[in-house]
Amino acid sequence: MQKENRSTVEFIPQFQKAFFHPRYWGVWAGVGALAALAHIPARFRDPVLGAVGRLGGRLAKSPRRRAKINLIYCFPDMPEAQREALLDEMFATALQTMMLMVELGARDPKKIQDSVVWHGEEHLKKARDEGRNIILLVPHAWGIDIPAMLLADRGLKVAGMFHNQKNPLTDWLWNRTRRRFGGRLHARQDGIKPFIASVREGYLGYYLPDEDHGEEQSEFVDFFATYKATLPAIGRLMKVCRADIIPLFPVYNAKAGRLEIHIRPAMYDLADAELPYIARRMNEEVEILVTPNPEQYAWILKLLKTRRNGETEPYRRDDL
Q1: 113 pLDDT higher than 70
Q2: Which of 131, 138, 192, 276 is the most buried (most CB within 10 A)?
Q3: pLDDT category of residue 178 using cuts at 50, 70 and 90
Q4: Which CA distances in Å does 225 have to 139, 194, 211?
Q5: Does residue 5 come out as left (phi exceeding 0), alpha (psi in the -120 to 50 range) or beta?
């Protein structure tokens, strides 16, 4: 793990002289190539990146299998040919949106801001005009970091939690890019309190609702056509942060070279709700946001790892 400034306030990635060691030269070369590609207009690079992504998705056996299993559970009536086409488009989208984030980290953000379409921005404006604290509920889209960076570039403070990357240089580069326009990062191993403090200070909280945190504190509730162990922590966060919960989801339109960010109305029905209801409402918002553009979602995650007693973990099934 890299050395870092890990205070009680925020995580600040620190550069190390060790990053000049030859073992990191491959990473530097890759970063240089990506930075060069970021200067190619999207209308030229996206078709190529899409083709490379589709090919890479065919070769990435393990991630593709996880995504396929998730789709089988979540959309059991989807024909196999449609499922395979969706997987291809998901991997294409992954590479295209990754390059968009590289572009945002390496170039003038105005070039991207001009091609962003915000849908439902009035919901965010209403909460801010009323002086409300805000937690954005953001499912795992491939472009998940981009809206936070765009909001920070527009002068809105954003605070999010993250997991460190295994490679120290990659971790430094990724988190430095996330912080380019300001905002705060909170490492998950530091707990939830720093994140709560930031939201109370007026930062837009960035919360990911779809991670599997195990059975102990989760609720088993519906998720598409299956069920999922869902952590209903957003209910408590809403109360302790005195915040509105506003769902958000980025969609990259590669044909138009345009990022569309969808913002939904605040979830005002959670205040006095029971935990199973809160968990289900979170999943419902994920479904509403993901269903129109399922290729934008990171189906490679182990979303359904935790199962009820006696049920085999989907990713360990030999018949899938």
Answers
A1: yes
A2: 138
A3: confident
A4: 17, 36, 17
A5: beta
